[in-house]
Design brief:
- By secondary structure, the protein is of the alpha+beta class.
- It has 22 helices and 12 strands.
- A 5-stranded mixed sheet has the order 10-9-8-12-11.
- Helix 3 crosses helix 5.
- It is extended and about 130 Å long.
C-alpha cells in the first residue's frame, strides 16, 4: 500500500489539517439574543484545483467506493438527525412557552399586582389556535415579557412612565411604521403601540484561528491615563490642610481609645473582685463568644435537678419544686411554680373582640381589686405603710383643695347627694403615649396611676405633714404605674383605624365608669370610688385620642404661607385669623377671650364620657409643655 496514490483534493485537505496554528485570537461581539450561540469557525482557505492522477485499471478495480460518496451519505444522516433534534427542540420550546403563559394568566389570590390584564386571559381562553399564536409570539420576542401593546394611558398606569416626553418619543417611534407597531384595540378601539420596555443582551465569544500574532493599534490605551485621573484623587502637596486635619483626627482617636481603655480596666477590676477570671470566663459566654442566648424552661428544670444532686441541702427550698416539673410541659409547669411561689401578680388579663381582632388588655378594675384586696390603699395615698385613718384624711384634704379649682366637677355633685364619701374616693390620672418596639415600629402604651405619691425627690429635708399632698414622681415604675394596654400601630393605622382606636378606648371608659359609680369593696368591707381627673400625654396622643381639629400640626411652616390657619390650640382660637398666637406681651391677648368658646375636637371621643367639670371641659386634657414650647 506504500505506492497507493490518493486523489489530489484529499491530499490538499490532509495538508491543511496537519498544519499547526500559531495562536488563537478571541473575537467578542454583542448580541441582543437571549440564547448563547457560537459563531462557526472560519472554513480553511480554498486550494486551487489540479489534475488528478488516475490509478492503473487493475488497482481501481479493487478499490472501495470513493470517499466523497461516503461523506455525502454521512452528511445526509447527520442532517436528518439534526432535523429531528431541531423539531424536538422546537416542540419543547413551544410547550415551555405555553406553560409560562398558563402560569401568567392563572388567577393570583395573594399577589394581585402580578395579574395579567383581562384581555390577555380572554385571548388565552379562546382556544388552541390562540394559545399556539401566543406561544409563538412569546418565542418571537425572545421570551422577553418586557414589551407589548400599550395605550398612552397604560404607559402611565402600567409602565409607570411619569414623563410625557418618554411617551411622546415611543408614539413617534411607532408612527414611523404604523402598519407594524400600531393597532386599534378590538374591544374599545383605543390605539395601542408596540413598546419595548427593556432589552436584554448577552456576550458571545468565538475562537478563530490566526496564523500571525495580533497587533494592537497605537491608541489602544489612550484613555487609560484619563480614566485613572478621574478615579484617583490628586495627591495634596506637603503641608496642606488635609494633613493637619488627618493628624488631628488620629490624635482624637487615640484620646478616645485611652478613655475607653481606662473604663475597661475599671470594669475588669470590679469583675475580678466578684470572682471573674480567665479560667471561668467561658461560662459567661456562649460558643460564639457572644452573650448567652435565652434558654428554654426545660434547661432551667434540668439545672434545678443538677443542683439537688450536688447540694442535698437544697431539698428544703423552692428549687425542689422547680426540679419536680416535667420537661414535656415545661412552660405550663414552670408558670404554675411561679404562681405557687408568688412570683406573679394574680391580675386577670381580659381579651376583647374589636373589629374582628382579639385584643388582650388589663382593665383598671382588675388592678384596683388586687390593690384593695391586699390592703395596699396606702400606696395610692403616698404613705409608707397601711394607715386607713391617715389615708382617709389625706384624700379628704385633697378634695377640699381640688374643689377650689373645679367646684363644678361631677364628684362634688355626687358627694353632696351622699352617693360617695370623698375620704374614700381616690383621684387617678390616665396616661397615654406612643413608644417604639425592638424593631422600631410604633406601639401605644396606656397606663394609669394615682395622682398622689411619694413626691418628686428621693430625699426631702422637710418634715412630712400628716395629710401630705405629694406628686407621684418617685418609686419603681412597676409599683407606681399600672399598665392597661399595649396596642401595636398596625391595629389603628388602617383606613378604619380611628374607629378601631375609639372602640378600644371605650372598653376602658366603660370599666372606669363602673369603678366611679359603683366602686370596689376592700378587704375591710368599705367601698372605695375611683375617678380619673386628667388624661395626660404628649400632643400627638391627644390628637389621636380626642380627634383634635386644632393642634400643633396646623402651625404654618413658612412666613410666606397663604393658606388659612386652622388653629393650633384645642382650648382657644390661637393662630386663627385675627388671633395671633405669638402675642405674649400684651396683658390680654386676643386669643385669651376665646378659651372654651369652640370645641376643638370632632365627633364624640370616648374619653370625654368620663366625669369632669362641664364648665371647663378642655381642662380634662393635660398640657404638653414641651410641644407648646417647641412652637
Amino acid at each position: 500500500m506504500d505506492d497507493l496514490l490518493l486523489p489530489q483534493e484529499l491530499q490538499a485537505e490532509l495538508a491543511v489539517l496537519e498544519k499547526k496554528p500559531t495562536r488563537l485570537a478571541s473575537i467578542s461581539t454583542l448580541s441582543l439574543d437571549s440564547q448563547e450561540v457560537d459563531e462557526p469557525a472560519a472554513p480553511p482557505p480554498p486550494v486551487p484545483a489540479a489534475e488528478a492522477t488516475v490509478p492503473p485499471p487493475e488497482q481501481s478495480a479493487s478499490m472501495p467506493a470513493s470517499k466523497s460518496e461516503e461523506e455525502e451519505e454521512d452528511q445526509e444522516e447527520q442532517e436528518e438527525e439534526a432535523s429531528g433534534e431541531e423539531k424536538a427542540h422546537h416542540e419543547m420550546l413551544k410547550n415551555a412557552a405555553k406553560q409560562r403563559i398558563r402560569r401568567m394568566v392563572k388567577p393570583k389570590t395573594q399577589r394581585s399586582d402580578l395579574a395579567v390584564p383581562k384581555w390577555v386571559a380572554e385571548q388565552w381562553n379562546k382556544g388552541t389556535s390562540q394559545k399556539e399564536a401566543m406561544a409563538a409570539l412569546l418565542q418571537e420576542v425572545n421570551w422577553d415579557k418586557d414589551e407589548g401593546w400599550y395605550s398612552q394611558s397604560e404607559m402611565k398606569s402600567d409602565l409607570k412612565w411619569s414623563t410625557s416626553q418618554r411617551i411622546t418619543a415611543a408614539v413617534a417611534h411607532c408612527e414611523r411604521k404604523p402598519s407594524v407597531f400600531i393597532r386599534r384595540n378590538l374591544y374599545d378601539g383605543v390605539l395601542e403601540y408596540w413598546v419595548t420596555v427593556r432589552e436584554t443582551g448577552r456576550h458571545v465569544e468565538s475562537l478563530k484561528e490566526a496564523e500571525k500574532p495580533m497587533e494592537l493599534p497605537d491608541d489602544a490605551f489612550a484613555g487609560f491615563d484619563n480614566m485613572t485621573k478621574r478615579l484617583l484623587p490628586e495627591a495634596a502637596g506637603p503641608g496642606s490642610g488635609d494633613d493637619k486635619r488627618r493628624v488631628q483626627t488620629l490624635d482624637d482617636g487615640i484620646t478616645k481609645l485611652e478613655v475607653e481603655h481606662d473604663k475597661l480596666n475599671l470594669h475588669f477590676a470590679e469583675a475580678e473582685i466578684s470572682g471573674f477570671n480567665q479560667e471561668n470566663a467561658k461560662k459567661y459566654m456562649d460558643k460564639d463568644g457572644k452573650d448567652g442566648a435565652d434558654a428554654p424552661v426545660a434547661s432551667a428544670i434540668r439545672a434545678a435537678r443538677a443542683v439537688l444532686e450536688e447540694v442535698p441541702e437544697a431539698m428544703g427550698s423552692s428549687i425542689r419544686i422547680m426540679a419536680g416539673c416535667g420537661e414535656k410541659n415545661s412552660e405550663r409547669d414552670a408558670h404554675r411554680v411561679a404562681r405557687r411561689c408568688r412570683l406573679t401578680l394574680p391580675i386577670m388579663i381580659t381579651e376583647v373582640m374589636i373589629h374582628g381582632w382579639q385584643v388582650p388588655l388589663i382593665l383598671l378594675s382588675a388592678w384596683l381589686t388586687f390593690l384593695l384586696g391586699r390592703n395596699l390603699l396606702h400606696t395610692l395615698s403616698g404613705l409608707p405603710r397601711p394607715d386607713l385613718a391617715r389615708s382617709h384624711a389625706t384624700w379628704k384634704c385633697f378634695w377640699s383643695r381640688y374643689q377650689k379649682l373645679y367646684p363644678n366637677h361631677d364628684v362634688f355633685r355626687r358627694a353632696a347627694r351622699g352617693e360617695l364619701d370623698l375620704s374614700r374616693t381616690v383621684g387617678l390620672v390616665l396616661h397615654g403615649d406612643e413608644g417604639r418596639t425592638k424593631k422600631k415600629s410604633a406601639i401605644l402604651v396606656l397606663s394609669c396611676h394615682s395622682i398622689l405619691g411619694y413626691g418628686s425627690h428621693a430625699t426631702d429635708p422637710q418634715p412630712e405633714p400628716y395629710c401630705k399632698q405629694y406628686l407621684n414622681m418617685t418609686g419603681h415604675t412597676l409599683s407606681t404605674r399600672w399598665v392597661l394596654g399595649c396596642l401595636p400601630k398596625t391595629y389603628y393605622d388602617g383606613e378604619d383605624g380611628d374607629n378601631f382606636f375609639q372602640e378600644y378606648l371605650n372598653v376602658f371608659v366603660e370599666d372606669m365608669l363602673r369603678v366611679y359609680e359603683k366602686g370596689i369593696k376592700a378587704a375591710t368591707g368599705e367601698v372605695y370610688h375611683f375617678v380619673v381627673l386628667n388624661v395626660i400625654g404628649d400632643w400627638p396622643w391627644f390628637v389621636k385620642a380626642f380627634n383634635l381639629i386644632r393642634n400643633f400640626a396646623n402651625c404654618s411652616k413658612q412666613e410666606t404661607s397663604r393658606a388659612p390657619s386652622k388653629g393650633i390650640c384645642h382650648v382657644c382660637k390661637a393662630d386663627m385669623t385675627n388671633y395671633p398666637f405669638e402675642d405674649f406681651t400684651s396683658a390680654s391677648p386676643a386669643w385669651r377671650a376665646t378659651i372654651n368658646e369652640e370645641r376643638g375636637y370632632s365627633g364624640s371621643p370616648s374619653l370625654l364620657r368620663l366625669p369632669k367639670d362641664p364648665t371647663d371641659e378642655s381642662a380634662f386634657l393635660g398640657q404638653d409643655i414641651f410641644h407648646g414650647w417647641h412652637l
